[in-house]
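We modelled the chain as a single entity of 295 amino acids. Its sequence is:
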Amino acid sequence: MNTPVPSLTPEYLTSRDWYDMLARVQEAASPVVAARILFGAIENHLRIESTLMVHVPRDEGPRLVQHRTDIRRRTISITEYLRFNYVIDPFYLALERCRMRGMLALSEVIEENFDQSEYYRTYYEAAGLIDEICFCSGDRQSGHVLLSLSRVAGQRPFSSAELAAARAIAPLVVTLLAAAWQDMGQEAPPAPTDGRTPGEFHRALENARTNFGRSLLTPREFDVLQHILLGHSVKLIAQKLDIAVETVKVHRKHIYTKLGIGSQAEVFSLFIAAVGATDLAVGRDPLKDYLRPRH
């Protein structure tokens, strides 16, 4: 009979088993061996089903270092993430905050009941995920390294005790992540950049996100659309902009009419379609060129 694997909780961090594992980490022959021991233990005790390690060079998009999952749709979503979607990913947008704190939970970066947000339904459920935590370190080259650990549909979200334990060990995780990431996998080349340098393409994507819809909407409608693009609910948008919920709904209705769409999920689809079909000229709204043939 197999002994159940104990959960990673603050209590477990005081156990003999945990300290035995830390002894193996300390005795490891190299940082990469130490990291594999530690990360493997964390994945085991947190019951992780999908692991992703990415390198985000300074002023460039993310590059895949290591990936483990049995879910085919998760693999497809990672390809899309590395190409375009990262610019609206809540963890990417919280990179600096994640680096300062060492670890962030999905519930901390979406800013509301994340399982009710449109971003969660559109991307996390579509990828077969139910919850995620992310450790973040520097890459020793002015960039970032992210270690994403996810649970999948059918599992329960991380408990408060598990999140507390993960935060407690974050200093050790990020230290080993910074020291070992370059030897833990073969860093993939940048995603296709349409003939531009990775930095140029990244800046063009950032421009596309921050200018998306600007040329077609009023200033207030544009503000609302930017929050919609980040997956924020009507209630959260109202709080962020200090306006009434009903006012947000009116702006949203006008936005949908002007863009020829009918839901918040279609905003994400329209963004991806626009950045994939236009030249991403700096200072321009990608929707202006993308929607022109329709008028």
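As a brief sanity check on the tokenised model: The mean pLDDT is 86. The chain has 14 helices and five strands.
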